[in-house]
């Protein structure tokens, strides 16, 4: 999978994508993540990419031309399944959407800033609009980082233990059960006996029950 991210603050994303699981995923050839500086697609000498809003009002608008140039340039070289715009008024991201996107081919992600992008970008180029939550960030970059991270870890082979993605919270609309490691007794606080019993089936039952309890108390909306 190839993911191209269009932003006017590329430095913000470069370091994020060169660490940990995302770094390994790229080195192993599972994902190629390329960050594009939108200012490179501006044709004026100050490399500006925003302008005042027609009709007045506070805040600048990201112009259609540099964005169109950048997206067309990418589309002339690669096939893309989606052009995703990160915006607080998009569809709210959840694990189901992440699962769907992880099965796609290449993706373009566009990060908004200021008052957002000219509506014609959304009408003509964007195929999907996503928000990472009901709060407003200063730009779409953190949204793109969240989206890339959540997608790439689902690509087969990226996680060492492939089953670990399947037992994540949300994968079956349940939060994950509690987990424990050594020591079995920490200052009198003990690991539940069942986990030390060696009874695989009983342990599975216990985990399922704990996941249900957690979900019922913390996120009952997931069970509706
Ligand atoms: N840009 C600004 N706020 C955002 C949000 N909540 N989700 C995605 N992109 C954003």
Automatic annotation (TrEMBL):
Gene that specifies this protein: trmD
GO molecular function: tRNA (guanine(37)-N1)-methyltransferase activity
Role description: Specifically methylates guanosine-37 in various tRNAs.
Organism from which the protein derives: Dyadobacter jejuensis
Subunit annotation: Homodimer.
UniProt: S-adenosyl-L-methionine binding residues: 112, 132-137
Enzyme class: transferase
Subcellular location(s) per record: Cytoplasm
S-adenosyl-L-methionine recorded as keyword: yes
CDD domains linked: TrmD-like
Substrates-to-products reaction catalysed: guanosine(37) in tRNA + S-adenosyl-L-methionine = N(1)-methylguanosine(37) in tRNA + S-adenosyl-L-homocysteine + H(+)
Protein keywords: Cytoplasm, Methyltransferase, S-adenosyl-L-methionine, Transferase, tRNA processing
tRNA methyltransferase TRMD/TRM10-type domain ranges (all copies): 1-223
Domain of life according to the entry: Bacteria
Name recorded for this polypeptide: tRNA (guanine-N(1)-)-methyltransferase
GO cellular component: cytosol
């Amino acid at each position: 999978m190839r993911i191209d991210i269009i932003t006017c603050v590329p430095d913000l994303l470069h370091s994020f994508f060169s660490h940990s699981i995302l770094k390994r995923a790229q080195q192993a050839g599972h994902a190629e993540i390329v960050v594009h500086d939108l200012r490179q697609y501006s044709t004026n000498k100050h490399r500006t990419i925003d302008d005042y809003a027609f009709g007045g009002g506070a805040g600048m608008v990201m112009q259609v031309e540099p964005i169109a140039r950048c997206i067309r340039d990418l589309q002339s070289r690669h096939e893309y399944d989606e052009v995703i715009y990160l915006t607080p008024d998009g569809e709210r991201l959840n694990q189901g959407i992440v699962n769907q996107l992880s099965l796609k081919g290449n993706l373009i992600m566009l990060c908004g800033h200021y008052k957002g992008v000219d509506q014609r970008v959304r009408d003509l180029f964007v195929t999907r609009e996503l928000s990472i939550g009901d709060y407003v960030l200063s730009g779409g970059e953190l949204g793109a980082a969240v989206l890339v991270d959540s997608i790439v870890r689902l690509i087969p082979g990226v996680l060492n233990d492939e089953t670990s993605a399947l037992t994540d919270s949300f994968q079956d609309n349940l939060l994950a059960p509690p987990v424990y490691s050594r020591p079995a007794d920490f200052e009198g606080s003990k690991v539940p006996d069942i986990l030390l019993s060696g009874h695989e089936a009983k342990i599975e039952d216990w985990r399922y029950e704990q996941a249900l309890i957690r979900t019922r108390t913390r996120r009952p909306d997931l069970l509706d």
